[in-house]
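Run log, item B.
One chain of 481 residues. Sequence copied directly from the ordering sheet:
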Amino acid sequence: MTGRDPATPYDVAVIGAGVVGTAIARELARYRLDLVLIESASDVGAGTSKANTAILHTGFDAKPGSLESKLVRRGSELLHQLGPDLGIPIERSGAVLVAWNETELAELGPIQEKARANGYEATALLTSAEVYKLEPNLGPGALAGILVPDESIVCPFTPPLAFATQAVANGTELLLDSPVLGITAGPGTHTIELSGERRIEARWVVNAAGLNSDIVDGFLGHERFSVTPRRGELIVFDKLSRRLIDHVLLPIPTKIGKGVLVAPTIFGNVMLGPTAEDLDDKFATGSSAAGMSGLWAKGQHIMPRLLEEEVTAVYAGLRAATEHSDYQLFLEADQRYVCVGGIRSTGLTASLGIAEHVAGLIEGAGLRLEKKQDFVAVKMPNIGESSLRPYRDGEAIERDHAYGQIVCHCERVTKGEIRDALRSTIPARGMDALRRRTRAQSGRCQGFFCSAQVDEMLAAETGQTVEKILRMEPDAAGATR
């Protein structure tokens, strides 16, 4: 907590600093409001947002007329527009949906119709020969496909960091390590109970608590949805596999999800996944033998040559699935409360659209939104592979030789980048946080070569011992406990 008088209420408290919560905080920070962004974990973007498929969707396959469809389209537009200014790596790779059997073949026409209903007209039907011309390393048996030229890949880590950084740079207070334990609604303000017997007051509450959005909704007296964590496991292949693929390879979607895909990543790898398994445990982010076995079988069918490559890492993330097919986004004007729940795999794409929508709801309910004339711009350091990285930037190295000193050789991360991440507006205070900001220790050797030097730099900046850093647990998956 800062030296701010705790008796003074905030105008808006945003609960949850994942990609959606940080986008909302950034949007509201454009106005003359007193804001607080509350997160239970030790860093922003440390839950669901850090473990997704990193696809920037067009919304072509969303349910027409749904709120999700509307906000995915708008969010995609905004992220493409604002991403370069914020330093968010984006590559317009395009995608190919592949039909492997007669049942899937029959779905291609309806999928194109759905895309048109969603306002996306650029799909193109592909013959089998055209599919293999675009992706010659596909496994045998593809009957036809659909080209979606505007699907893109995006860095999964930079968006919440960029949004939160811009919010903080424009006056938003960020409270990390602050689980929300309860909310008491009063006639003029809400009392939000935090861990450590702390309390803050806010006139408005926005619930963007991800996996725990149903719990926070319950704090305000509502029982309209339940979050069931849906685990998605993924396999990341070494950078030498990148030559095998040009587009995101999508399966025909099902009711459960978008299915297992093969996709290039913004970091120059190739990814296989995710699975879709509903669980009871909101912290079950470990991979499973069954999940890995199922992915391997899918990969053998989709692209057998990929499985000949080295595996760099496996990971799992939890999506905030509910019993409803659409986003659970509600305005309770009398309570001065907005619920933003059930934001599943499209949350990254829709985040800025959701933020704009939430701001509009709050303004419509009576909160005056006066734009700042001095909104501070930020630009995050580039960690994408398609743009100039510091180790290749002669001008940057000339200005500061630390950008020419490679520490993590697998990912070509320099001493200057690590130093900057440790001293940034929202500094990295753990290895997971540093990895999301720089890619350090996320390459083939998983830190075997560079961990000693990275840990020493982290210890020096945080005042912790190396031994304590090595004992630190990974960030929690939930936004509120």
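Observations after the first pass:
- Confidence is low (pLDDT under 50) at residues 475-481.
- The two ends are 19 Å apart (CA to CA).
Flagged for discussion on Thursday.
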